[in-house]
Amino acid sequence: MRTSLVMAVIASFMILGCNDTSSSSAPSVTGQWARHETIPGNFFGMSLVSQGSAISGTGSFQGEAGIGGTSTVTGSITGNTVNLDFALVSQLPDGPLTSTEHFTGTLLFGRLLGTMQFDPASSPAASVEFERTN
């Protein structure tokens, strides 16, 4: 009987120790990500680093018509809500073209699900999904 009581007390402390809700650390998005593309030949990938709620990174993209480029990524994560800003530099035959896009979405089971919007909003926001590749 005494052994059962001691085991119950130990188990209670272990459970309480595992339920520390005082931590306010945001989920990590650090790693390699690739946009789920439906058009063959298209690619949009990025490498992100998160420190607390701040996100930064770099990426690259390629279109089926051969236009590609690089991106710089900044953003934030609050809970599972992710906001990313992309500064894009497309490499065109006549020289580089810069543009910006904004992602708003949710981190869910190793995926970033949300929408991408050009800035300024020249077209409707498009649904996108990024998958963690590492």
Helix content: 10-25%
Low-confidence stretches: 1-23
In quaternary terms, these chains amount to single chain
Count of helical stretches? 1
Rg on CA atoms, Å: 21 Å
- Determine the structural class based on helices, strands and strand pairing: mainly beta
Overall tally of domains:
1
What's the pLDDT, averaged over the residues? 83
Say how many strands there are.
Answer: 8
Shape: globular
CATH architecture: Beta Barrel
User: In angstroms, what separates the terminal alpha carbons?
Assistant: 50 Å
CATH topology: Lipocalin
Main beta sheet strand tally, sense and closure: 8 strands, antiparallel, barrel
Superfamily (CATH H level) name: Quinohemoprotein amine dehydrogenase alpha subunit, domain 2
Widest β-sheet, arrangement of strands? 1-2-3-4-5-6-7-8
* Proportion of residues in β-strands: over 45%
